[in-house]
């Protein structure tokens, strides 16, 4: 068996043991004496609820004005701005590739310090023809072509172009990304002044008004940015989100480039930067705009990939994350985040199974109520923050309720993906989200396509 197969088997074995532990922990309270079955859930609710309040809500109340911080960083920066390479891995993106290149051509940055790279990752639609025409209009556009069977997904495409880059910074975008013209003028000084190895722009949903699902995703993106900044504010960890991630090229090279054995290159790179002592920052404004998926089926496929890659990185880098390479605050942050994001949905399913077996009431509900309630408050906090870009959803009790109900899908996705990873052999499939550009009408049932 090759090394890749051995690593995959180890990952599956780890997932199986983890799933067994979660099942035992979720069912065990049902065999405790009456009156004590809720104690484990209450203890976790106090611990994780306190962490969430401190990390999200209290930090959001004292959130810094990123626009002012970026402006101050620009004023303090001496010397010329550093060279930047904007990199996009594109496969079958005929609906959005022209808009993307036109927007990137409007970015304000000193002449000669900005180059745009598009990796045509084996497209079978009109993407290659459109890129050929765009190259004639925009001399700064570099196009690299890759065979459809080259392997490695988005990570492989980024690694192909990584060795050709010369700028200090690389900004990785998805093909549906839209940036304000002053983004680089504000982002680069912010990154330099903060000493960051990477900076993640806030992701803003460009088509939030299409339906309730896209509206809920806009809330989720605001929630995510609030959580990211809150975690940083208490000495914790921030993570990359793929689209709109600014990376210092030497830091990426020191990590060995992009991991081609994962389905989420951004989450994997986040942890490799972390254990390498390379800090990641988050910038609220200016945001990067992107399309939300329009249908439930597409959403679930996308979230399964995110869940798999998210859990995968904890399995792969667990020992390093618990080592002295990280500060105590970073380790505590990762433990609490892991329990909330990945363990709690598993405990909830096991709790329901235990209730059915023992014919008792569920025991995990205090923890679930606390987690969902605080998530709702964090959605309100994020959507009420001043922001550039697309308007965030207006907040009222009904809107907050929609956001909370929407987040319940993770209680289905996480357990399903965990069980699948524990039982089924892994076959790497890099999935891309279908980007529709301006052609959204009548496409509410469009789902994600797979590479």
Short description:
This protein has helices at residues 3-27, 39-61, 66-76, 97-105, 127-137, 153-162, 183-194, 212-233, 249-254, 265-275, 296-321, 328-358, 365-383, 397-407, 410-423, and strands at residues 84-90, 114-121, 141-146, 169-173, 198-205, 245-248, 280-290, 431-432, 449-450.
Tell me about this structure.
The chain is an alpha/beta fold and 451 residues long. It has two domains: 164 residues, no CATH class; 237 residues, Spore Coat Polysaccharide Biosynthesis Protein SpsA, Chain A (Alpha-Beta Complex), CATH 3.90.550. 53% of the residues lie in helices and 12% in strands. The strands form two sheets. A seven-stranded mixed β-sheet has the order 3-2-1-4-6-5-7, sandwiched between helices. Helix 5 links the parallel strand 2 and strand 3. Helix 1 packs across helix 12, helix 2 packs parallel to helix 13 and helix 12 packs across helix 15. The longest helix has 31 residues. The radius of gyration is 22 Å and the shape is globular. The chain starts with a helix and ends with a strand.
């Amino acid at each position: 068996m090759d090394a890749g197969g051995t690593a995959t088997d180890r990952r599956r074995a780890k997932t199986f043991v983890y799933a067994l532990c979660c099942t035992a922990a979720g069912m065990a309270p049902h065999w405790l004496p009456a009156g004590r079955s809720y104690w484990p859930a209450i203890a976790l609710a106090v611990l994780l609820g306190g962490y969430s309040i401190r990390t999200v809500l209290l930090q959001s109340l004292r959130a810094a004005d990123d626009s002012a911080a970026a402006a101050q960083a620009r004023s303090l920066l001496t010397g010329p701005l550093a060279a930047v390479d904007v990199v996009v891995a594109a496969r079958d993106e005929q609906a959005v590739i022209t808009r993307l290149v036109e927007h990137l051509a409007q970015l304000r940055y000193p002449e000669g310090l900005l180059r745009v790279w598009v990796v045509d990752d084996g497209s079978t639609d009109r993407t290659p023809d459109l890129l050929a025409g765009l190259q004639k209009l925009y001399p700064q556009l570099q196009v690299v072509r890759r065979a459809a069977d080259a392997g490695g997904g988005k990570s492989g495409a980024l690694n192909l172009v990584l060795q050709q880059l010369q700028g200090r910074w690389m900004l990785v975008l998805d093909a549906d990304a839209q940036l304000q013209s002053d983004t680089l003028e504000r982002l680069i000084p912010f990154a330099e002044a903060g000493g960051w190895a990477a900076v993640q722009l806030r992701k803003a949903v460009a088509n939030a008004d299409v339906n309730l699902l896209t509206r809920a995703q806009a809330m989720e993106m605001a929630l995510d940015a609030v959580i990211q900044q809150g975690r940083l504010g208490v000495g914790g960890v921030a993570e990359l989100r793929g689209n709109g991630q600014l990376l210092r090229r030497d830091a990426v090279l020191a990590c060995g480039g992009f991991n081609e054995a994962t389905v989420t290159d951004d989450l994997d790179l986040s942890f490799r930067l972390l254990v390498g002592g390379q800090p990641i920052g988050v910038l609220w404004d200016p945001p990067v705009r992107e399309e939300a998926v329009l249908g439930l089926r597409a959403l679930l496929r996308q979230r399964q990939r995110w869940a798999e890659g998210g859990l995968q990185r904890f399995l792969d880098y667990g020992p390093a994350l618990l080592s002295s390479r990280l500060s105590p605050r970073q380790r505590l942050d990762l433990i609490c985040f892991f329990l909330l994001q990945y363990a709690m949905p598993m405990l909830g399913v096991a709790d329901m199974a235990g209730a059915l077996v023992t014919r008792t009431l569920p025991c995990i509900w205090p923890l679930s109520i606390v987690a969902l309630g605080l998530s709702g408050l964090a959605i309100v906090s994020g959507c009420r923050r001043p922001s550039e870009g697309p308007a965030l959803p207006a907040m009222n009790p009904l809107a907050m309720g929609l956001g909370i109900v929407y987040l319940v899908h993770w209680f289905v996705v996480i357990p399903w993906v965990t069980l699948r990873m524990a039982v089924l052999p892994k076959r790497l499939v890099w999935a891309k989200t279908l980007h529709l550009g301006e052609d959204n009408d009548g496409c509410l049932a469009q789902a994600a396509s797979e590479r």
